[in-house]
Structure formats: structure tokens, C-alpha cells
Specification:
With 204 residues, the protein is mainly beta. The protein has one domain (34-203). It is built from 2 helices and 10 strands; from the N terminus they run H-E-E-E-E-E-E-E-E-H-E-E. It has helices at 34-37, 150-159, and strands at residues 44-51, 55-66, 78-85, 94-102, 108-113, 122-125, 130-131, 136-143, 175-184, 196-203. The strands form 2 sheets. It has a 5-stranded antiparallel β-sheet with strand order 1-2-9-8-7, with no helix packed on it. A 5-stranded antiparallel β-sheet has the order 6-5-4-3-10, with no helix packed on it. The longest helix is centred in the last third of the chain and has 10 residues, at 150-159.
């Protein structure tokens, strides 16, 4: 069964890992070295970020592509972190951390802590949207929002002539694991031009 697209808040312009909210996007990551591919739960794919008038939305995907029938990739040994700098120096003032865990019945849940404006962690079952005092979070499997015409890219390189088709998408009908956090911009201060965000994974 195909998952719904990533939706939390208002969908707007998105960008990948290393986004500077005031100056554009940097690289995406979709092909791994053999060593990295051996640890899919810690394999960061893309990061998307945008803001509305009121909210900042952060999304990271990990564990690569998966067919809709594949099992989710949850691992209690990996720490997933959104880093947020609010003063323009690219040193994080906030580290929003997500971890997964299982209860006695083997059911997976997740915890999101250090969310600006929240006095406690957001905790609950995977595949459910959690609501805090002003923030929301989601962790689970979704249709991969990444789009890339691989055939068109290869044809363009070979021929030197642009050959892209919006109907060709290498990520079509592929799922990915995703972590989403939406928080009020007010929790980060008033100067939105100074906000920088990036993502990381780390195995303990």
C-alpha cells in the first residue's frame, strides 16, 4: 500500500540537506558507499525545510528508498537530530533530537525532545502525529517527496541536449522513513533571516 505524501502544516518551497533558509539549498544524498549502505537506519537521505508566517517545518528522510510493502526501519541505537542556528553563525543553538524505542509488546514509538517552545518531549507511537504545546511531530513511513528524472539526466550527459520529462521519476512509488517537526517561529526569536538548519544521524 502506498503511503500518503509528507504533509504537516502548509506545504511550501522545500530544499535538501544543509538548507540556509535565507540563501538557498545544497546537496541531496541518494547513493551510498558500501559502508554507509550497511547501516540504513543511520543513512540520512534528504532534509526539507520551509517556513510559513507562523511556523518552521523540518523534515528528514533516512534509510533510502523502499517499496510500499517493505517494513519500516526503526532502530533504538540511532539519534536523529535537526540542528537549528538562530544567530547566523552556523553553530546550533537548538538540537531537536528524535529516538525510537519499543515497549514490552514490541510496538515501536518515538520521542522528540529539545523542541523550542516545548517544556517536555513529544512522545507516542510511530505513524501518529504528536501535538505539544505549540509544536507537532511525526515519525514513520511516507511516499518519498524527492523527484529526479534519472533517465533524462543520463541522456542529457550523453547527448549534451536537455532531455527531462516530468513524468519520469526515479522515486515514483518508493517509500522512505521520515521524521517531521513543525514548531512556532516565535520560539526561535524574531530575526528569521538568521535561521540556519541542518540534520545529522549518529549511532551510539
Amino acid at each position: 500500500m502506498r503511503r500518503l505524501p509528507l504533509l504537516l502544516g502548509v506545504i511550501g518551497a522545500s530544499a535538501s540537506v544543509g538548507l540556509w533558509l535565507d540563501s538557498g539549498a545544497h546537496a541531496a544524498d541518494h547513493q551510498e558507499s558500501p559502508l554507509t549502505a550497511q547501516d540504513p537506519a543511520a543513512d540520512l537521505g534528504d532534509m526539507y525545510a520551509w517556513h510559513t508566517n507562523d511556523s518552521l517545518v523540518l523534515i528528514m528522510t533516512y534509510a533510502g528508498y523502499a517499496m510500499p510493502t517493505a517494513e519500516p526501519s526503526y532502530d533504538d541505537g540511532v539519534l536523529y537530530t535537526f540542528h537549528v542556528s538562530t544567530d547566523g553563525d552556523a553553530t546550533a543553538e537548538h538540537a531537536i533530537e528524535t529516538r525510537f524505542g519499543q515497549n514490552a509488546m514490541g510496538e515501536w514509538g518515538y520521542s522528540v525532545r529539545n523542541v523550542p517552545g516545548e517544556s517536555a518531549a513529544l512522545e507516542g507511537p510511530v505513524e501518529e502525529v504528536l501535538e505539544g504545546e505549540g509544536a507537532m511531530a511525526y515519525a514513520g513511513v511516507r511516499d518519498d517527496p524527492f523527484f529526479f528524472d534519472l533517465e533524462g539526466f543520463q541522456n542529457t550527459l550523453m547527448t549534451g541536449t536537455l532531455d527531462f520529462d516530468p513524468q519520469r521519476d526515479v522515486a515514483f512509488f518508493q517509500n522512505t522513513n521520515a521524521i517531521v517537526v513543525e514548531l512556532p517561529l516565535d520560539a526561535l526569536g524574531n530575526d528569521r533571516s538568521q535561521i540556519r538548519v541542518w540534520a545529522s544521524t549518529a549511532r551510539k
